[in-house]
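For the sake of clarity, the format in which proteins appear in this thesis is described at this point. Each number in the token line that follows is a code from a learned vocabulary of backbone shapes. One such record is shown here in full, so that the layout can be seen directly:
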Amino acid sequence: MGFFNWTERSSDVLQTGGVIAPDERLPWGQTGLMGIQHVIAMFGSTVLAPILMGFDPNMAVFMSGIGTLIFFLITGGKVPSYLGSSFAFIGVVIAATAYAGKGPNANIGVALGGIIACGAVYTLVGVIVHVIGTGWIERFMPPVVTGAIVAVIGLNLAGIPVKNMASNNFESWMQALTFVSVGLVAVLTRGMLQRLLILVGLLVASVLYAVFTNGMGMGKPVDLTGVMNAPWFGMPTFHAPVFEAQAMLLIVPVVIILVAENLGHIKAVTAMTGRNIDQYMGRAFIGDGIATMVSGSVGGTGVTTYAENIGVMAATKIYSTAVFLLAALIAVLLGFSPKFGALIQAIPLPVMGGVSIVVFGLIAIAGAKIWVDNKVDFSQNKNLIVAAITLILGTGDFTLKFGDFALGGIGTATFGAIILYALLNRKSV
């Protein structure tokens, strides 16, 4: 295909069990709706990560769009992915800046320098992979390992909506109402309504939440005051990086987690589409690395390919890169609109929690699908042990500390899977 040429397909192909491949697209109107859904899918995490680090959320949204455009261009429009704020940076950024956890981060410049250094190393890894191929990576990360890593990314996030996005019994019921709404849309509707299951389910649940709270006084009401008061247009907050050796050494090791995440995501998309996306692995690493450097140079967070959007693709069977091009352009525009940020933040937290339960679950299932599609043999003890331990390390958020650097659940699960497989993959004598 040409760089911006996609084969247009009717949504009828989805009704017969087909998929919309990366080099295909639905009519532009439907593609635009899918782009909006992907923006919503990424928004919660892309905004939450900078808040936890004391960064500007609007800048994070803006740079997620810029980063996705950079990724699109470097991969030649071949890899369907959205780049959003990476949670892997949170712990090391807080450690490097001594951030107190509330308000703007006074030492943000030091963090940005470390993020840029991490992006540079990530880009170098991508160049090596592009030149000599992915064989050395795949030797250490076969399907049993990558499937476990992808599954862990979803399972590790499970505690966020379950434990932190419902403060009482009513809100827990609202979460349940939300994921049931999404499920009903997924099963009972057809056509584009079904493909927009996340967006439609969220809207239905938000309306029902407003009825129960604003109308019947059963919980915290929906407050749109912030939306009404927010300006339509406003510049995000720019910051300059400061390069300090200690902060850079603390933050650069995050590159290993970013490589593992991106590798797992590409493996998942390859498995789901049946297309050989693996051949663009080096470009994907380079694109993600450069996007991270560009983001860090102006005050944005480090970015990574987003599992949330992988989950949406798994649910909709639409893998068109055109969707992500439009989603990126929408995010760039929204980065200049505080009113949009206020609107998203006005969505009831339990409703966002219910949607997150669906999306994170879909990510976990995408990992299991890698096992199924590659016919991983769990009668072999090496596969059984690697998968079993990896899932528990990631789900339980098993953490190891090396001085000031903490390797959390996704990191320990990733390294655990790779190292265990290398140790256990011995031929019988």
About this structure: Residues 11 and 272 are 18 Å apart (CA to CA). The longest strand covers residues 83-85. The mean pLDDT is 83. The beta strands are 7-8, 24-25, 83-85, 303-305, 400-402, 405-407.
